[in-house]
Hints:
The protein has helices spanning 4-15, 19-54, 56-59, 71-98, 106-110, 116-139, 141-150, 154-165, 171-181, 186-194, 197-205, 211-227. By secondary structure, the protein is mainly α.
Amino acid sequence: MKTRAELKSEAKDVLRGRWKDSLLMCLVPTLVSIAIGLLIFFLLLLPTITFVQNNPDFVNGTSSYEGSSGGGGGGFFGGVIGALFSAGISWTFLDLLRGKKQKITPFSDAFRGFAGPVILGVICISLLTLVFVTLWSLLLIIPGIIKGYSYSQAYFVYYDGYEETGVRPGFLESITRSRKLMKGYKGQLFLLDLSFIGWHILAMLTLGIGYLWLTPYITATKAAFYENLPKTAAI
């Protein structure tokens, strides 16, 4: 496994000359999330306005009303959508690292995870990973974090399996192979994440604008991390 500095250098090489398209590709999920958020807001707001108009006693405080909260469902839906975007963008950087792609097509590459052959796999892996990590977290927080790192390569494993055979790999199989791949490397990925703390602080000081540059950098570095993992460990 290469050092953190070497992995980041590989990521910078991939991004060199492609920063604009990388920024646009990573911006797509943000714009889509804003659009979905506004849509959900208005869909929730309209029934509320209609209810108030039809129930004037509610305004005067003489009527009781218990609204249903969509926060949990919205967070769950957002997590799945985020996984689909994250997978597609990560695969794009992996292909660039491998020389399989030379150019980023921001909009289409951002939606690669939504493609028919892979969307079910990404969704199922996302849900299974959430269940497993949650169950481990019921014991203690730290076991949950460790398992999160164990399963972190499942989307890459799934993608490689499909690309190599043309057949969708098993969802549990992809998670298991990720766990085997990460045996002995979870600490290195954790330290790699820690090495970006300074950049996260700077990005937050810019009110989040810095993440336009930081997100592609981190994602490309994570792709380089996977590419340099000894694949024989997962056999």
